[in-house]
Amino acid sequence: MYILAWICGLGLLTFVFGDLLDRQENPNREPESVRIDNQTEVRLKQNRAGHYVTAGTINGVPVEFMIDTGATDVAIPAHLQERLGLLPTGSALAQTANGVVRVARTELNSVSIGDITVHNVRANLNPGMNGEQILLGMSVLKQLEFTQRGEWLILRTL
Length: 158
Prior knowledge:
alpha+beta; seven-stranded mixed β-sheet; 3 helices; Cathepsin D, subunit A, domain 1
């Protein structure tokens, strides 16, 4: 009985602290939108590492984005292609932080964060990327106004 109580206690602690760690990695799991005049605004809080990570969707499929102003296009790990229903439209060489890599080009019908949605977005399927996180690059951000203030990144429709 004593051992069962310990196991339950450890399981509960794992659940609670696992969720806490997830929130520290992505404090924007449910980004809120605000309507100001004719614009929609989403505020993203920095994570502990100083990055802006947020939940969003690509073509209606839930994903996790990391905002990357240094990325020309949206960069998607190639292994997510099927889950996102993406079709390659060609190939290209891309300069990444890890060097030059051949990527498959694709186009996203829609990219959404909160109530902000942009359409017809250039993206790359990168075979060198691991994990589930997608880099949200300038092919989306150039269609928005964005401002950093303290630990907040404010995205606003044009």
